[in-house]
Write a structure and sequence with these properties.
Elements: E1 3-4, H1 6-36, H2 45-68, E2 71-72, E3 87-93, E4 97-103, E5 114-116, H3 121-126, E6 134-137, E7 140-149
Parallel strand pairs: 1-2, 4-5
Antiparallel strand pairs: 3-4, 3-7, 6-7
Helix pairs in contact: 1-2
Length: 157
C-alpha cells in the first residue's frame, strides 16, 4: 500500500470533487446538445468534444480515487540533517533565485512551492543532500540552504 501525507490526500479529495462536478456539468451540457440536434450520435461535433473531455476526466477521476484510497503517512517529527521525504528544501538556484521544493509522494500543483513525488528528476537530485550542499540539474546549480519539516498547515490546498 502506498501512502500520502495529509495535505496530499486533502489535495486529491479536492481535485476529485472538482472533477466529479465537471463531469456532472458536462452531462447536462451533453443533454442540451442532444436536445438541440437531430443527430444524437452520428456527425455531432459538439457532442464529440464533450465526450472527449468526459473521457479524460474519467481517467483523472480513477487516478484520484486511487490516491484517496491510500493510507496516511506521518510527517517527519524533526528537521533532518539530510533532505528526505516529508521535508521542504529551500534551494538557491544559480546563486540568485530561492525556491522551495517539497519531497512528497505525488506531484501536485501548489502556488507557494514545488511539490514533487519520487519519480521527479528534482526529487532524485535533491534527496539525500545535506545543508549547504550543492548539486546540478538541467544545467542549473542548486544549493540546499535549509531543510524544514513539512506539516499539514504549511500547504495551501
Amino acid at each position: 500500500m502506498e501512502y500520502l501525507y495529509a495535505h496530499e490526500k486533502a489535495w486529491a479529495e479536492k481535485q476529485l470533487f472538482n472533477v466529479e462536478r465537471r463531469i456532472k456539468e458536462l452531462g447536462l451540457e451533453l443533454g442540451q446538445i442532444y436536445d438541440q440536434s437531430s443527430e444524437t450520435w452520428h456527425d455531432n461535433g459538439p457532442a464529440d468534444v464533450v465526450m472527449n473531455e468526459v473521457g479524460g476526466l474519467w481517467d483523472r477521476r480513477s487516478w484520484l480515487l486511487s490516491l484517496t484510497a491510500r493510507k496516511l503517512h506521518a510527517y517527519p517529527k524533526t528537521n533532518g540533517r539530510v533532505l528526505s521525504a516529508g521535508h521542504i528544501g529551500v534551494l538557491r538556484v544559480n546563486n540568485h533565485t530561492q525556491i522551495k521544493v517539497y519531497l512528497g509522494n505525488i506531484n501536485i500543483e501548489l502556488t507557494d512551492m514545488i511539490h514533487i513525488g519520487p519519480q521527479a528528476p528534482m526529487y532524485l537530485a535533491a534527496q539525500g543532500r545535506r545543508h549547504d550542499e550543492e548539486f546540478s540539474l538541467n544545467h542549473k546549480k542548486y544549493k540546499l540552504e535549509q531543510i524544514i519539516v513539512g506539516k499539514a498547515d504549511m500547504f495551501h490546498i
